[in-house]
Amino acid sequence: MFFGRKLAVGVVLLLVPVTGFLLWAGMRQGPPPTVEVTSDLPAVGQATTLTIVVKEPVRGLSSLKVVAGGPALKAPVTLLEQAFEPAPAHKPWVTPTTTEHTATVVVGKRAMPELVPGQLIVRVVAGRAGTWMRQPPPAEVEQTFEVRLQPPALTSTSSFVHPAQGGAEAVVYEVGPSSVKDGVQVGDWFSPGSPLPGGAPSQRVALFAVPYDLEVSEAEAKEKIKLVAIDDVGNRAEQGFVHKFFPRPMGKDTIELKEPFMKKVTGEIYARTPELQPKGSLVDDYLQLNGDLRRANNATLKELGAKSVPKFLWGETFLPMQNAAVKGSFADRRAYLYDGKQVDTQDHLGFDLASLERAPVQAANAGTVVLARYFGIFGNAVVIDHGFGLQTLYAHLSSIGVKEGDTVARGAEIGRTGATGLAGGDHLHFTTVLHGLPVNPIEWWDAHWIRDRLKLKVGDTLPWAEQAPVAPPGAP
Fold first, then answer.
1. Average pLDDT, stretch 361-389?
2. Could you give the domains of the chain?
């Protein structure tokens, strides 16, 4: 009898904590998850990314669902639905697998073709862990977003725009107040617009570049060259504005690589460009300069173009180098041969002008020096900013006579010709660059072209008066 009583007491003593643990585990639900919803744009337009952060630090999340609805949609749309494995209620020592989760969803006209202007309500439902005794309700958060789908107003006011392949042009236009980015798009190249000096707030001007390799018909060019205006939520207006287009097929040239030349240029450039490591063989070392370093230098030119001041710093026709022979033309596609085999192809985007050794190099026009240093494949080089994205590049100099930040006048000596960088002999590599894209310098040497394509459009904004023409390089 005594033994039976002790057994009963033992069973009771055992059942009490077990029962308590089971009751505790049955009640051990997770706390309500916290939900945070942020947007990358001030409203919903074509494609707005929402970032959703959900946290439940005790037992972890069980599910997540995101639904869009409201007056801007005819019917609700499920944007996201996920399930998670929370920590078991009876195993408090187990670390939850998902105590915090970040998800992104895209809302807008592209993802929701039936979306209309109005209010879009995004509802986030975050499930938490339950037990065999209790299934707690999820946390629900609703956030309302304004839907704006009207693009900015956009109208070209230039009556004639006649760009050429590899050339430049200008267009004056008007945009609505909702535009935050506008300009000219040509394929992957974008030329930004700027306020028209002295004009109304809606008036803009864009000097734009046409890629040298845009080998298309006039009809195709009119489709590819567009005025664009974009608002702060991605709504985009486009308008064709080109009246005529002039193809300029690329030239072809062949360069035979010789070991003495490659040794000269690789030895110099690698010594002056410590961030670039040689590949190990002479040909590979040269090809790295001709390809990778060329692309890096071109990227720097694009960065410089983006910093150009939005005003005209010049008032005369651009000055060509005098008494110079043309040794290389703009937009030549060069095939590089070594031991009779083609090893590379690159595009030559300027004029190679040869005169006397160490001949004076003059600034083509007034402006501000934005680069004056050793510059990769261009060797000793100078870049002058002339405003509105237009810059000139002077390369392979033996010496530099200006420094960055200097203001220079048209015709001022800025250096001497040389053979630094990827140069085989003494000459000047000269080109004009518009928003980082090289364009044909011949246009800027032509007073009639400046008058017809620029002055007649912008009027007194450009303080330019036509002068007597100066013969371009190579002219008799």
1. 98
2. 34-147 (2.60.40.10), 154-240 (2.60.40), 251-461 (2.70.70.10)
